[in-house]
Amino acid sequence: MGDKLVKVSEFHGFAIPNVTLSEGFSIDSFVTTLTRLTSLKVLSLVSLGIWGPLPDKIHRLYSLELLDLSSNFMYGSIPPKISRLVKLHTLTLDSNHFNDTVPDWLDSFSNLTILSLKSNGFKGQIPFSVSKIKTLTDLVLSHNELSGKLPDLSTLTNLHVLNIIENHLDSELPVLPKELVTVLLCNNSLSGEIPEQFGELHKLQHLDLSFNHLSGTPPSALFSLPNISYLNLGSNMLSGSLPDELSCGDKLGFVDLSSNKLIGQLPSCLNSTSDKRYVKIGGNCLSRDSKDQREGSHCLISSKQSRGRDIAVEVAVISGAVLVMVLLGLGVLLLCKRCRSRTQEQHVLSKNVQANTPTGISSELLANARFISQAAKLGTQGAPVCRLFSFEELKEATNNFDSSRFLGEGSMGKIYKGRLENGTFVAIRSLSLVKKCSIPNLKARLDLLSKLHHPHLVGFLGHGIDGSGQDDSSSSKVFLVYEYVPNGNYRTHLSESCPEKVFKWSDRLAILIGVAKAVHFLHTGVIPGCLNNRLKTNNILLDEHRIAKLSDYGMSIITEEIEKFEAKEEDPKSCHRTNIEDDVYNFGFILLESLVGPIVTGKGEAFLLNEMASFGSQDGRRRIVDPIVLTTCSQESLSIVVSITNKCIAPELLSRPSFEDVLWNLQYAAQIQATADSDQRSDSTTWL
Asked: Which of 52, 53, 51, 49 is nearest to 18 (CA)?
């Protein structure tokens, strides 16, 4: 049950056994209890199976700065009183069942930076009030039922991300703010020409306008933007020819112009797919010897055809009106019948809930709801879809595993950098297997690995198996394909060999909190928990935004099958049965390395354990703690982390904390540090 997704059409506002919290759950009572925490700043209730309309009394949490209720079963509208949360800077209601219009009072949030309402049933137009939220950096409204006009957002001078994928917007493209980095407007019904102003978005990296009704010739300046890396204009009605002198930006790695009506010669910078740039141009009428191009007549619309199309449209409108009248009559009859059956269905459902779940909200029920729903629904929050890769596809992606693509050797196998057909860079881990290893069991374990989705885990994209055994008749190879994380590992940002990149204390806390969240998810967010996750600073990778992503996690799922293939009786759906304390202990050494730096940790585990006593005095801390930490931390924040580090590396297993305790302490230390930094800035301002 843990990996079953519940579709919107299957949820009708009532409890669903083994998916939502029980029928006895009251969201109103639950929120009433929460409102006693008036000093609460962060409220994240993700994937808990909470169901019902969001009560307006949530506005009593007037100190809230972040509210995330993603992946639950809330429906109806967003209560207007929530606008009283004036300190709110992040509002995330993704993957619920809200089905009203987007509120027109959103500009009441004077500090809002992130608004994410994706994967709901919001309908109607995007309100003009959105364009008044001057602080907004991320606007995500994808996968809803929004229609009409895309408002003028040019006043949002801080906006970096605009994502309105898969709605029903049918206007022309407006002028966009110049700070945008990512624009995703595919799968709508947008029409008209692409504005020349888009060629002035110099910070733009990712533009996807595919699957719309855009016409005209795309602006040449789009292709030469200094930071553009991904440009998808496929499946529109773009026409005309691109100029011969068109130039492409140095970072442009993927271009899709397929399924349009372009003619003429293709400019030289788009004329061939290379290791540097992948170009899709099929389904046009370009002058080239290729079977993927259409006849020239397909890309020409004569005046006669145009008049015929107008007549056809008029006939279609009249016919459609008559058809709508007939369908309305039938709809009324069916609606009455369905309402009667819905009442019966609710009665049966109530009996099932009472028979299978207890009333009230026990801590065990809350925990089970989280376990059941997190693995199922975290994957819907922008997580990549896992798939099977062919060996030929992986060979092509790595230029036949050329040495120039070799990234290094991890704890398991060699790792190569690859480039897929769509331009996406990936990391490919190559593992050798003995042929006696059970491939069906291995595939079952890989299927389990594919369900581990979390923002702080390196995304697992899929796998491939090569049984040709060219190198060794008794072996085959399995390839694990991951997202490519470009910014190195955490350990390199702790080293004095590169002072300008060394993280200060608050940056280290942010990284540690991200990793702790990931490990906490691996321990408690899936059934059964995945333990022994090879935790060390080298396995903490950083993306382009310096967000921590844990690699080499869940490898015990694979190694257990490889190392114990002869044990027929083992359960292929269980993770390696190593004590959970192993991860806690290893994370303790990550904390220690964050405190003292990699140079000191290089002296060995025994030396560090002996030196732990030094943390008890100020002189001892000055002697062993990294100077960067000492000059950028508050003593209270440092003391909290030193204390939890001591507990993590305690020799007695029972003395070590849970990861929930570790995470709480790190978040508390970060909050103390943020307050200290804020006070210091205020003092500096006062003296000016």
From this structure: 49
Is residue 381 within 8 A of residue 95, CB to CB? The reply is yes
* H/E element, 215: strand 213-216
CB of 377 within 8 A of CB of 47?
Answer: yes
* Mean pLDDT, the chain, integer: 79
DSSP H helical segments within 236-362, as ranges? 303-356
**Binding residue numbers for ATP:** 436
Hey, what are 607's tokens? 């030396």
Residue range 31-78, pLDDT digits in tens: 998 988 888 999 999 888 899 999 999 999 999 999 999 989 999 999
Answer left, alpha or beta for residue 24, where phi above 0 means left and psi between -120 and 50 means alpha: alpha
Q: Which residues share a beta bridge with 388?
A: 463
pLDDT surpassing 50 at residue 578: no
Instruction: Name the 3-class secondary structure at 452.
Output: coil
Which segments are annotated as binding site?
436
From CA 688, how far away is CA 604, in angstroms rounded? 47
* Strand ordering across the sheet containing 285-286: 191-193, 213-216, 237-240, 261-264, 285-286
Q: Which residues are bridge partners to 230 per DSSP?
A: 206, 254
Asked whether the beta carbons of 378 and 454 are under 8 A apart, the reply is yes
Range list of β-strands (E), 435-539: 460-466, 475-483
The whole-angstrom separation of Cα 378 and Cα 518 is: 12
pLDDT higher than threshold 70 for residue 562? no
HSE-up (13 A, CA, CB side) for residue 208: 17
Instruction: Return the C-alpha torsion angle 170, 236, 425, 511, nearest 10.
Output: -10
**Cα separation of 483 and 420, whole Å?**
11
Query: How far apart are alpha carbons 686 and 669 in whole angstroms?
Result: 26
Q: What's the full length of the chain, in residues?
A: 688
**Interhelix angle 581-596/635-648, nearest 10 degrees:** 140
> Could you tell me if 82 and 105 are in contact, meaning their C-beta atoms sit under 8 angstroms apart?
no
pLDDT at 486: 86
Q: What is the pLDDT of residues 402-413, one digit of tens each?
A: 989 998 887 678
Q: What share of the chain is helix, strand, coil (3-state, %, to 5)?
A: 40, 15, 45
Rounded CA-CA distance 325/319 in Å is 10
From residue 512, alpha-carbon distances to 95, 121, 465 in Å are: 27, 36, 34
Cβ atoms < 10 Å from Cβ of 336: 9
Round to whole Å and give the CA distance between 606 and 597. 16
Reduced 3-state DSSP string for 12-60: CCCCCCCCCCCCCCCHHHHHHHHCCCCCCCEEECCCCCCEEECCHHHHH
Mean pLDDT of 127-143: 94
The residues near 278 (Cβ < 8 Å, ≥ 6 apart) are: 253, 254, 255, 419, 421, 422, 423
Cβ distance 85 to 62 under 8 Å?
yes
Which two three-digit tokens encode residue 615? 């943390």
Contact 188, 166 (CB under 8 A): yes
State CA 531 to chain mean position distance: 23
Read off the pLDDT of residues 628-647 as tens digits, 9 standing for 90 and up. Answer: 999 999 999 999 999 999 89
Can you tell me whether residue 407 is helix, strand or coil?
strand
Q: Could you tell me the two tokens for 100? A: 């009203």
Average pLDDT score over residue span 583-590: 91
Whether omega before 651 lies within 30 degrees of 0, making that bond cis, reads: no
Query: What does the block give as tokens for 516?
Result: 């702790």
- How far apart CA 511 and CA 196 sit, in angstroms, is 40
pLDDT single digits (tens) 276-320: 788 888 899 988 767 788 888 888 854 344 444 444 444 454 555
Q: Are 593 and 537 in contact (CB under 8 A)?
A: yes
pLDDT of 557: 67
In the chain, what are the domains? 190-299 (3.80.10.10), 383-484 (3.30.200.20), 488-688 (1.10.510.10)
Rounded Cα–Cα distance for residues 162 and 167 (Å): 13
